[in-house]
Write a structure and sequence with these properties.
With 269 residues, this protein is mostly beta strands. 12% of the residues lie in helices and 57% in strands. The longest helix has 20 residues, at 8-27. The radius of gyration is 19 Å and the shape is globular.
């Protein structure tokens, strides 16, 4: 998932606060959940670029991801843990995000014409992390999400969000200006002979926030093969595949780019 270099000791509380907020926000709908899905992803990549480090960094990423739907919308959160194994100044980094989507269709009974646009949701989210360099990342996001009906896709959503960066460095506010984030998210299942696959992922396009930052683009498309079905006959439980990480102007830093594949394994619960 989305990644940000963070310090284990301080970021643990930051990511934990995101997770606690996610669980608290969803607690009221837990008994009324219409559906839910949790998975654990393990990935390894060798082309990470961190500010101030000339060489590529190798990291293993462990992600806990959860999404659930209830009568009026859905909740989504993830927590990433990064374990540096080569050229990494920190051995363990943690980062988390939480989003809530309040469906206008479900709350008002409105329909959107039955065409490509299935639903519109009011969306609010929070991103949190901390770094050994003295940075404390706190980003608030709010806006709308468009749920689109595209042939063959299980889902294709587009977030249109205000991006309010309230991060601090060494305890001092950064005074970033408000910006925006546009995020398409998708899942496209398909079959090749007797095998079942999934092409899924997201892209974040984030505008410049002042203080020398520039526009940035982060894309993490995944190609997954359902190996659980091949081995045990159990569908949609265990996958292997690859996630390609492309990050242009990482963190809004002009010229700091990543482009490399991760190998991955996923277990769904």
């Amino acid at each position: 998932m989305k990644q940000f270099s963070t310090n284990h000791k301080s970021a643990g509380s930051a990511a934990a606060s995101v997770l606690a907020f996610a669980l608290a926000a969803g607690a009221g709908q837990a008994t009324a959940a219409d559906w839910s899905q949790t998975d654990v992803q393990v990935m390894n990549g060798t082309g990470f670029r961190d500010p101030g480090i000339h060489d590529d960094v190798t990291k293993t990423t462990v992600t806990l991801q959860h999404v659930s739907g209830y009568a009026y919308g859905r909740n989504y959160f993830f927590v990433d843990s990064y374990w540096g194994t080569k050229n990494a100044p920190r051995s363990n980094d943690i980062y988390g995000e939480y989003y809530h989507y309040l469906s206008l269709g479900k709350t008002s009974g409105a329909t959107f014409g039955g065409g490509m646009l299935k639903d519109v949701s009011l969306t609010a989210g929070v991103n949190a992390g901390s770094s050994t360099g003295g940075a404390a990342t706190r980003i608030l996001l709010y806006g709308v999400t468009l749920d689109l009906a595209l042939p063959g896709f299980n889902y294709f959503n587009v977030d249109l969000l205000a991006y309010d960066d309230r991060s601090q460095f060494d305890g001092a506010p950064t005074h970033y200006r408000k910006s925006y984030q546009v995020t398409p998210v998708w899942q496209l299942p398909f079959s090749i002979g007797p095998t079942h696959w999934s092409f899924e992922g997201f892209c974040d396009y984030i505008g410049a926030r002042g203080q020398g930052t520039v526009n940035q683009l982060l894309c993490q498309p995944q190609l997954r093969l359902d190996v659980g079905e091949l081995v045990s006959g159990r569908r949609d439980a265990f996958f292997i595949g690859t996630e390609y990480q492309y990050w242009h102007n990482k963190y809004g830093i002009d010229g700091l780019d990543e482009s490399f594949p991760n190998i991955m394994a996923v277990v769904k619960f």
